[in-house]
Amino acid sequence: MTVVATAAALSLPIYISKSPKLNFRKSAKGGFRVFAVFGEEGAIERKSGWETLFDVEDPRTKVPQCKGKFLDVNQALEVARYDIQYCDWRARQDVLTIMLLHEKVVEVLNPLARDYKSIGTMKKELAGLQDELAEAHRQVHISEARVATALDKLAYMEELVHDRLLQDRNTAELDTPSTSPGTSTQSHDSINRRSPKKSLNVSGPTQPYHPRLKNFWYPVAFSSDLKDDTMVPFDCFEEPWVLFRGKDGNPGCIRNTCAHRACPLHLGSVNNGRVQCPYHGWEYSTDGKCEKMPSTRLQNVKIKSLPCFEKEGMIWVWPGNDPPAANLPSLQPPPGFQIHAELVIEIPVEHGLLLDNLLDLAHAPFTHTSTFAKGWSVPSLVKFLTPASGLQGYWDPYPIDMEFGPPCMVLSTIGISKPGKLEGQSTRECSTHLHQLHVCLPSTRQKTRLLYRMSLDFAPVLKNIPFMHYLWRHFAEQVLNEDLRLVIGQQERMLNGANIWNMPVSYDKLGVRYRVWRNAVEEGAKQLPFSKSN
Ligand code: FES
Ligand SMILES: [Fe+2]
Fold first, then answer.
1. Tens digits of per-residue pLDDT, 371-392?
2. Cβ atoms < 10 Å from Cβ of 227
3. Which numbered atom of ligand 1 lies nearest the CA of 278?
C-alpha cells in the first residue's frame, strides 16, 4: 500500500509523493524543528524546507495581557499582530500533528512491521490513529475559526486607524489660524467622544427632533405628483404641511391647518393658485396669506409657510429657523440612466432608523431572502470601503456603491451581472446598473415619508410598458416589508430603553458615520464631519 493510498483511506488532506521518515525535536526557541528522513537505507537528510516550516517560536508567552483593559489604537494593533502570530503558530502545530499521525499510520502499515503483528493488533492501532486524526481535524477547524476572528479584529483595527487618521487630519485643519481655536477644538472633541468605539448616542423616536436638524433643504415630493389643481399633504418634523402650485405655477408650502377653525386644508381645493378651506371657504396663497374670507372680514390673517423650491423633478422645503442655504444638492441619477419609477411610501418608523437600515448591506443575505438577496451566500467578511472623507464608498464583496447624502438621503448604484447574482464583481465591471435614491423625510418621531426613485442604464423599453409603475411599487414594497418588521421591532425596543447602536462592528461603518454626522449637527459643531469640503 502506498502512502498516498493510506492517506486517502483516512481522508487526510495531504499528499506526500515519497515515503518520508520524519524526526521531530523541540528547537531551542520553544518551537518545533522538523527533519525529514528519506530512503530505505536510513541516511539522514536534512530538509531545510520542512525545518523552516515548523521552526516558529511559540508566541503565547509574549501576548500582551490586556483582557478587560481599554486599549489605544497602537496597543490594539499590537494585540491583533500577536493574534495573527498565534494563528500562524497554531496552524503549523495542527499540520505537524497530522504529519506525525501520518507517520504512525505508515509505520503500522509498514510491510516489515506487519510480519510481526496480527491483523487484529493492526486494526486496533489503526482505529486508535483514526480517533487521533479526528481530533486533529477538530483542531484544524478551531484554527480556522481563530483565523476568521483574527481577520475580523484586523478589519476593525483598520477602521479605527482610518478613523484616527481622519480625525488627525480634521484636527490639523481645525487648528489652522483661519478657524476659531476655541469652538473648533470643542466641536472636534465632541466628535471624538462619539467615535464608533462604543455605543452611540441615538437621537430618534425617544427624543424630540433637535431644531438644528431642521436647517437643511429637504425634498418632500416629486414634481410629477403636484399638478396645477392638486395638493400634496405631508408631515415634516411633527407639523402638518400642504404643497400646491400658485398662480405662477411655482410650488408653495403652507401649514395644513386653517387659521379659522383648524380644518385640514388639503381636504379643500385649489382655485386660481389658492387653497380654499372646505369648511367656510377661506383662501390662502403660497405665502400663507388669507386672501379671501367669504361672508366676513378680518385683516392680516396669515398661516405659516416654508421656503419652497423646485429642482430637477423634486420639491424641496426648508423647515429650519436659520436662513435657507443658497444651494440645493443634486439628486439626479448619473448620466446614461433613465428614471423608471418614483414612489412615495409612508413608513411607520423614525427616519434615522430607516436610514440606519438603508445604509447597511450586511443584513441582506439574512433579511431579503425572498427578494433581491435570494440565494446569496453569507460572505466570510463584509466591508464598506470608503475614500478618505467618507460618507460614500463601496461594498465588498458586492458590486454596490453607496452614499449618504445629508440630511436624509441614500444614493446607491448596483451593478447587475446576472439576474440574482451580485457577488464577485465591482460596480464598474458590471455592464448594467440600477440606481436608487431613498429620501427619508422626518415626518414624525415614528413616521417617515420615503421618496424612492429608481433608474436604470439599460432596458429603456420598460418605460413604455403599461402598468410597469405598479410592478415597481410591488417590488419596492416587498423589499421594504422584509426590513420593516425588524426596524419596527428595533423602534419598540428603543422606546423601552434599548440602544440600537450598542455594538457597532466594521460593516456598520456607513451607518455609524451617519450617526456621528447627525450628533455633530445636533451638538452645533462648527464644522461637520465627513463633509465634502473637509
Ligand atoms: S375652518 Fe377653514 S374657513 Fe373655517
Ligand atoms: Fe434591507
1. 888 888 899 899 898 875 779 8
2. 12
3. 2
Give CA separation, 263 vs 220, 237, 447, in Å: 22, 20, 22
Strands (E) located in 371-431: 383-385, 392-396, 400-405, 409-416
Q: Find the 440 Cα to ligand 1 centroid distance in Å.
A: 32
* Residue minimizing CA distance to atom 3 of ligand 1: 280
ipTM of the prediction greater than 0.85, yes or no: yes
- The answer to whether position 35 is within a domain reads yes
User: Is residue 438 classed as helix, strand or coil in its secondary structure?
Assistant: strand
Instruction: Establish whether the linkage from the previous residue to 529 is cis, with ω within 30° of 0.
Output: no
- Report the nearest-CA residue for atom 1 of ligand 1: 261
H or E segment and range at residue 276: strand 274-276
Question: What's the CA-to-centroid distance between 337 and ligand 2, angstroms?
Answer: 23
Ligand 1 pocket check: which of 242, 261, 291 to mutate, most ligand atoms within 8 Å of Cβ? 261
**Cβ-Cβ contacts under 8 Å for 485 (sequence gap 6 or more):** none
Its domain, for residue 26, covers 3-166
Instruction: Cell numbers for 200, please give them.
Output: 452611540
Please tell me the total count of domains within the chain: 3
Domain-ending residue, one of 253, 277, 310: 310
